[in-house]
Amino acid sequence: MTVFRRKIAMVLTGTICMINPTLAHAEEESSATVTVKANEGKQQFRADYFEAYAPVTALDMIRRIPGFTIAEGEGRRGFGENAGNVLIDGDRPSSKSDDIFTILSRIPASEVDYVELTEQAGADAETQGQGQVVNVVRKISSKLTGTYEGNLVFGHRYGFRPSVNGSATLRRGGTTYEFNVTSYSERVFGFGPEDFKSGNGDLIERRYYKGTGGYDGAGLGGSIKTRIGGAKVNLNGRVQLDDSFDHRNGVYSNPAEILIGEELLLRSGPKSDLNYEFGADIEFKLSPKLTTKIIGLYRAATESNDSSIETARLGQPANLFETRSQNKPVEIVGRIQNDWSAMASHAIQFGGEVAYNQLDARFTAASSMAGATTVFPASNVLVEETRIEPFVTDIWTVSPTWKIEAGAIAEFSKLTLSGDSTASRSFQFLKPRIIATWTVDPSTTVEFRADRQVAQLDFGEFATSIDVALGNLVDAGNADLVPEKVTTLAAQIRHKFLERGSIQFRGEFQKINDTQDLVPVTLRDAAGNITAQFDGAGNIGASKRWNGELEITLPLDWLTKNVGIGGIEVKYTGHYHDSSVTDPVTGQKRRMSNRPLWHQEWALRHDIAKSGFVYGVTAFAQAQNNAYFFNEYRRQKEGVRTNLFIEYSKFKFGTIRVQYTSVPDFGRDRFIYAGTRATGPIAQIVNRRRYLDPLFQITLSGKF
Q: For the whole model, what pTM was predicted?
């Protein structure tokens, strides 16, 4: 923590020293096309601004906009609440299967007319609760355009794995047809020891593992955008196949390094699993001052996972433990939003959203040693939720430099569980928010925010699962789980300098009710006696969180052009996350589980002018991750992930990129207690270390 704060202080001090009138003068001399609308908090970035970066897709362009970070929503409840902050031709994609990164990567950079950045509250009716929004506006063209990308990922111990992605767009009259195909494949090879020790640290047994894991997938998607009369109509659909696997061998030895057993782990998701989505929206005007948009969405999937772990110790019969799980999620969403602009200085949005979510979860486990199927709690569960959310928002333009978005969402929902767990409960939540932005000048924006949000429930946490790779650790389903309620107070300042440079800082305080963390899940017989205890997701009362985020993008032309070098840029992103909650086992204050105290990323990029060459390096590191089980404390630490690349954009067939990724090493320490963490001494210590082979990647991408 001290080292982290020292680094933050060094970065801030250096930045303050560099942002001075000399740099402001350098900014005025820039020749790139950036249209600034000071009174509207808007900037338009045109093609020549991005020329130095030789972008292939719209995603490449968005990543070069100073001070902007793509947001995909924050796991909140409701389709509208997870709008993100990127629009395509003024519209929010009515899709949840495709993330915005994928959608942007399918748009050729040559087909982008301009990118508009808005930094005011209520930046767009399509993006509720966002104080910063980017709109990618495409050219109007009747020719066939598209993108293509071929990847080859390889490593010396797991071979070559190709993948291909492509997209095509065709406009005929007022109709746009889009089609895309995606495939991906990746492998990782890992090896290392796992030491089992007594409570006082004496080695009892060492297990040495090596194995290969990875995933494969393919997808087809498309959309049609047209006009029927005066209405805009969008239709989209996607089907995707996913498969993953894990294959691991282990050998057991005693402290004298004598072989005493072997292990084989096989884990896979059957290739028959599919997920698909269909979405549609229609937008029309009921009057010159009233616009209505209706959105519909249907998603469904089958998600299977089979695993087996076989151990054979000398002098003992082999033991085979197998698990089978299959989850079938379904989501149906209907939304209507109305935008009314009849009042001066005010833009009113009102409407409602109806959603139905379902998860049918099936799980079984069997052990050859036990001789029969093992029964775990909540193995077969059907979870259903129906939710209705009326909403209203007012965007008030107080003055040319002040804008306020105030709104509220009322939620009425019912959750039911059937099968091995039975429960039925209703929720009523009010989710107000207010966002105010102050455009200090064309380069500086200050944002204030206060809101109350309700976190999305992970339906998988109502059902039981087992991690066979971690000693058959049971994650028990919890029928009593309710969503977190989070009240947030936040402030953010963004400042741009040197045309391509920016600095922004965000501070945030959160108060949480019904904090979700790990809790003991206890099973009892008819007489009330405890028959088993497991860990699972649950609610542990009130908590507090403090978050700080600092992002600096610093172009170095002002420093290096005097020696004939240009196009060098460095970027720093740092996040600090502290929290305080009462431990349900010990009754003492601690940080929340699975929430590292900090993480940060450093990046350097050099675009060599007119040569077509770009190279760069990125390093990512984070603090250790802690988890608090009822009879175990676990800490996990990953090494630094580094990424080095070189890119050449003047190749005949597109842009070729060679990349090296050092996958971070991994360390996990488990301290297992005799009894609970509150009552028992440490009975066992398990130290796991895993070293991963690096990945090499060659990518050819282009546009047509």
A: 0.86
